[in-house]
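In the laboratory, one determines a bound structure by crystallizing the protein with its ligand and collecting diffraction data. In a computational setting the workflow is compressed into a single prediction: the sequence and the ligand go in, and a structural description comes out. We illustrate the idea with zinc ion.
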Amino acid sequence: MEYEPVIGLEVHAQMLTKSKIFCSCSTAFGADPNTHTCPVCTGLPGSLPVLNRTVVEYTIRAALATHCEIAPYSLFARKNYFYPDLPKGYQISQYELPLSSSGFVDVQVDKDKKRIAIIRIHMEEDAGKLMHDLSSERGAHSYVDFNRTGVPLIEIVSAPEIRSPEEAAAYLRKLRAILMFLDICDGNMEEGSFRCDANISLRPKGQKTLGVKTELKNMNSFRNVQRALDYEIRRQTALLDQGEGIIQETRLWDAARGVTSSMRSKEEAHDYRYFPDPDLVPIVVDLEWVKALKASLPELPNTKKERFIREYEIPEYDAEVLTSSKSLANYYEACLQIYAKPKIVSNWIMSELLRELKRDEREIEECPVPAKNLAEMLKLIDDGLISGRIAKSVFEEMYQSGKKADEIVKEKGWIQVTDTSAIERTVEEVLGKHPKEVEEYKKGKDKLFGFFVGQVMKATQGKANPQLVNDLLKKKL
Ligand SMILES: [Zn+2]
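The predicted complex, in structure-token form:
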């Protein structure tokens, strides 16, 4: 039987506000445990939450950027459950009346475009963090850090319209890029400021009703989301093929072992006894404010992509890659300011630059080659000072040392040989060393021309101007 995966994603994104959602404690990451806490975020009796206006503003920005509607009236609700990292015994979230709903994100999967609906975006507070110490002399025990308690999150819930792990990854990449373009989330998956849970079920192809779903947690990179979904598709397929049912449950992804395992049976919404939080007033959003926020939205990834295609006449694939992050797009445009050949710059960024960054697991923000330096190196090629082949070595050296191209070229003696008489001498030497090949070439074995070019380039350590080598070889032969 062939099955169709039905995938829905819930993304939790941490808002880049300075203070928490209901108190003035700092949201900074990495402080000593329990130093960013107060009676409100540790849930002491008698303390009262006060909503951070910037969290509402950022949520509206996210909602507008994903074509959602903004509710003029929405409510906070208490989601009740017990866990040691949740001192109040409930999480303040939004339930029946979220701040925004009914949007979409357009994504590109290989050559296909797909629109994925967003059901809702709501605000909520984060819980604290438990650290488990299994190796202490006192025996296994756990610590709790409340610094993260009350850090503002938005939850973005997609419709179950995603049909493959690749689509899931494309959706997440685009969503993350949008939030980062808006400067409302730093997108750091390792530190947990952009995290994702996935619901997945299978159904026979062509069937309309949904199968039983599992929820996957603990995937802290795009690659792990894809791997976990791939694994879950295989697992569920095997069970269905054997005629066994799928159990509705929450499963944890184990990246090291490459498997998901059961964590707990899936709770239903009614288990949480949601009710409107009596400590917080309803949120009434002024439409003028929404209008002003809409007018102030920056250029978003897909708009930028369209502009790159139009303005720079580069292929859609290039434009998609270059607009995958704001910093990369800025880097590209900074290069073009100095060296205005869009496709050449795009080629260098997409092949050489991104390859080096990927190898070092660095982001473009940490790139040791400033845009200006790359552009100036490309100019050296155009000016005939270095060959395209040498340029790749120059670039690697620039990346390693952080030096400028002209310094490296001087230091290494990599300046292209454009002196005709010098090249002519080398050409004569090469032909003199290979009389047999010259004979065959003259008898019509044209293919040997490439061999002679290669020999001359080798003898000049790649520094000879290729055009001159070609011309002179033809003349001599
Ligand atoms: Zn606090």
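The chain has a mean pLDDT of 93. Keep in mind that any predicted model is a hypothesis to be tested, not a measurement.
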